[in-house]
Amino acid sequence: MGFSIAIDGPAGAGKSTMAKVVAKKLNFIYVDTGAMYRAMALFLLRNKIDAQDAEKISIKCQEADITIKYENEEQVIYLNNENVNGLIRTEEVGNMASASSVNKEVRLKLVDLQRKLAQTADVVMDGRDIGTHVLPQANLKIYLTADAGIRAQRRYHELKIKGIDSNVEQIKKDILERDERDMTREISPLRQAEDAFLIDTSYMTIEEAVDAIMKLYKSTLI
Ligand code: DC
Q1: Is ligand 1 within 6 A of the CB of residue 182?
Q2: What is the model's pLDDT at position 90?
């Protein structure tokens, strides 16, 4: 088992931004578990499977071979040997990922992959259930959150930079819906682990939030 930092929290709180920077500083591997659920969601969307059809999802998800590789220090997600990094960041895929990740078979498959990665390397892993379920023995657990309006603004700007036009009110609605679903699902819902440190990034710069995490990391070494 390597050293592991678990970062959980709702959509748009800045998990992947912070996790990437912290991983780089520490020379750890960054594992974006949301990307795995997104790759699975893309597979289900392509196969025209309804988000509500639990039975079909349980069966079909077995045909999705999801693997990750590290190329030029970036995590690249492969879906049945196809690099899907450029296809999984849409709101449609994100919403389907939230809906399909309630499924037990989907979670079993991806949690297994996540645990294997943490066994062989030092990792900063972000997601919804890392501190509570995937890596309950993580050396450091962070729960990152921010005001929903601010998270919606961030997503809106992220999409805008990529040239994708969107509506901030619609994004906020989607975010709230997704939070609700992620926090109330039966299997490993999003919640703050008892031993996780809470960081609210609403009024923090990226640098300030990274500093806060680095301080906590250093405190675990004493
Ligand atoms: O972090 P993200 O927006 O890329 O995640 C997309 C969805 O995947 C999220 O709404 C819920 C699901 N997810 C999950 O259930 N467990 C994780 N560890 C990571 C993501």
Answers
A1: yes
A2: 87
Name which residue sits closest to atom 4 of ligand 1, judged by CA.
34
Domains of the chain: 1-28+122-222 (3.40.50.300), 32-121 (3.40.50.300)
Identify which of 16, 75, 98 to mutate to test ligand 1's pocket (most ligand atoms within 8 A of the CB). 98
Across the range 57-66, mean pLDDT stands at 96
* Residue 222 alpha carbon to ligand 1 centre in Å: 32
Helix boundaries (H) for 66-201: 91-100, 104-120, 148-161, 168-184
Which residues fall within 8 angstroms of residue 14, CB to CB, at 6 or more apart? 144, 146, 154, 201, 206, 209
Q: How far apart are CA 164 and CA 170, in angstroms?
A: 14
> Tens of pLDDT along 150-174?
999 998 998 899 898 889 999 999 9
**pTM across the whole model:** 0.94
Give the containing element (helix H, strand E) for 141: strand 140-145
> What pLDDT, in 10s, does the model give residues 116-153?
999 999 999 999 999 999 999 999 999 999 999 999 99
pLDDT tens figures, 80-90: 999 999 999 88
Ligand 1 within 6 A of CB of 11: yes
Q: How far apart are CA 167 and CA 108, in angstroms?
A: 34
